[in-house]
Amino acid sequence: MSTGSTPRSLATLHQEEDGLATAEYGIVMLAAVAFAGLLTAILTSETVRGWLEAIVQQALGAG
After folding, report:
1. How buried is residue 54: exposed, middle or buried, by Cβ count under 10 Å (0-12/13-18/19+)?
2. Which residue windows are transmembrane per the record (predicted)?
């Protein structure tokens, strides 16, 4: 078992993964923006807006 090559291998592995954190961050941000867009589209639909208004009115005792 040669331990002389282990630190060199780890350094090489680290260099190969240098851009991964940035790419992963970009993918997560893209997914978050897509989810926010979907949520906005759902919450601004007339059906959901009516349901939310009914829930709020019932909670406030106006319905």
Report:
1. exposed
2. 25-43
Structure tokens at 13: 């592995």
Q: Check: CB of residue 54 under 8 Å from CB of residue 63.
A: yes
Domain membership of residue 9 (yes or no) is no
The full DSSP string for 20-31 is HHHHHHHHHHHH
Question: Which residues have CB under 8 Å from 49's CB, separation 6+?
Answer: 43
- Kindly report the pTM of this predicted structure: 0.52
Task: Quick: pLDDT tens for 14-48.
Answer: 666 666 788 889 999 999 999 999 999 998 899 99
Please, what sign has the CA dihedral across residues 17, 22, 28, 30? negative
- Whether residue 55 is contained in a domain is answered as yes
